[in-house]
Amino acid sequence: MIEEHHALVAFKDASPAKNLVTYLNSISISAHMREVKDVTVDSQYVVVIEDQAQLPRAELELQGFLDKPWDKQYTSAAWDGGAIPDASSGNSLSISKLSNSLFALFKQTPIVAIVLALCAIPCIAVYAFGLGNTYNYLSFQSFEYINQTQQWWRLFTPALMHFSAMHIVFNLLWWWWLGKQVESQQSGSTLLLLLLFSAALSNTAQYLVSDIYFGGLSGVVYALVAYVWIHKQFDKQSTWQFSNAMMGFMLLWMILGFADVLWVNMANTAHLVGLVAGGAFAAGALALRQDQRQ
Q1: pTM for the complete prediction?
Q2: Which residues are catalytically annotated?
Q3: pLDDT in tens, 257-282
Q4: Cβ within 8 Å of residue 137, ≥6 positions away
Q5: 209 CB contacts (<8 Å, ≥6 apart)?
Q6: What domains, with CATH codes, occur in the chain?
């Protein structure tokens, strides 16, 4: 059992708890995260202060964290999987080459290119320039808040938020590869509708089972996985490139996430709902095409 006077705050998701613990330790407040495995308790990840004398200071820091959870000072530890190259360093990407590549991609598949840019820009703003408030404008919020403020974009924009180099690279590679197939073989409007449909459903579902502390394009990626795989099974005339082995890998990755045996914290509900949303979208698209042929 956790002594009450040592417990600072509890979260439904491990990610904010880990970020807060890392930050507190960095400012010499000894803290650790403890998982409470009690089905009667909604919040399962408790931040514990090891020295009771440090509790008042920790409570003050907690207020800042809750007000601006995406601020750089709290999220920088999550970027330990890699770093965005500094523009002043000799290893930085060539801006001209990058611009030419993006322009060519935009001409061929504009929706894919725009989403790549929309995911990259917030990460650069937060992790390279320290504009932590960027994620405050993109994160999911309560339905009451969204309704009162009319900030309906928050149903979709968590998909643009990423918290490590591995996180964004993994998601954008899948988006680029699968998204290009949908946009080039079908249309940009199909890809855009699938993006909005799956993002809204997966983000909403993840919020309902956890909290606002999540983000990433992975729910949309799983929707693309289901969409492309189903089309390959039923549209034999197409040139879809997605093998059964790849489908098996993505399903195994999702199962391992639910089993909580991976070294990364994953938005498992978003993955599952994205997969179902993509499957439903594919079934609807195939049925509509069949009706048009008759």
Answers
A1: 0.70
A2: 218, 271
A3: 888 777 767 788 999 999 999 999 99
A4: 157
A5: 12, 269
A6: 4-67 (3.30.70.2350), 95-293 (1.20.1540.10)
